[in-house]
Amino acid sequence: MTLLPSSISQHHADYFSIIELSDLHLFDDPNKLMNGVNTADTFASVLSLVRQQRDNVDLLVLTGDLCHEPTPQNYDRLFATLNDVDIPFIAIPGNHDVTLELDSHLPFTQRRHLPVKADTRLQNCYSIDTDYWDLLLLDSSCEGHSHGKIDEQSLRWLAQQLANANRPCVIFCHHPMVLIDSAWLDEYTLINADRFWEVVMPYLDRIKAIFVGHIHQEMHKINYGISVFGCPSTSIQFKPLCKDYTIDEIAPGLRWINLYNNGLLATGIKRTDTI
């Protein structure tokens, strides 16, 4: 199921359990490679970790760049696979979900990027109420661009959601609204990050964490007292703290998130080479 009801109950007495998956970069041809990696195979390996925890997970959140080739049949195949996992899930777009990248044989900065419309099953301005928490999901993708931007209509929605309740909340978005200290990736973060922080500033006490994709690596930054967590990719990993585009040898993975009834949370990374 890609569309959830406005509320979802937790299975655990003390917490709501989420798994974040990001940056799948699936191709129409499941045998096609990206940087020598079969992204369909690496996604399947990460999904096997999810299946092992199926009875303990309340929700899967996919934070963008689901398809490197954003075609309806590619999403059809992905959502059919996720339906088979039998955990409620929801997905937001990333830049590759609204951009067809051409000339992959050229350096990244020389490739062409053609705008495409996001698949209608990908969400924006979506709120989910759990028993004790609010989850807020935003689309930061810009058609034809690698950087992100949250439009003013979405920011108004976010402000309204934050103002209208007093429960703890977490935000999910594709692009980070902080710099991650990799020069090449910091060119493609949220270009209106200052505006985002201006909007959420009156509600910082409600926001317990922000979870993002896009950067293909584990990350934890704190801005205005708010933790921003990056998620590893289910495909290739980007090496942290690099000036130029650099692939890391570390295994693909996922982020697990436990939202406790008392307003605290725990989160961590699980990779395919760990038990």
TrEMBL record:
Q: Keywords on this record?
A: Hydrolase, Iron, Metal-binding
Enzyme Commission numbers on file: 3.1.4.17
Q: Which Pfam families match?
A: Metallophos (PF00149)
Which EC class is the enzyme in?
Answer: hydrolase
Picking any one GO molecular function of the record gives:
3',5'-cyclic-nucleotide phosphodiesterase activity
Q: Which residues form the Calcineurin-like phosphoesterase domain?
A: 17-217
The UniProt entry's sequence similarity note says: Belongs to the cyclic nucleotide phosphodiesterase class-III family.
Name assigned to this protein:
3',5'-cyclic adenosine monophosphate phosphodiesterase CpdA
Which gene underlies this protein?
cpdA
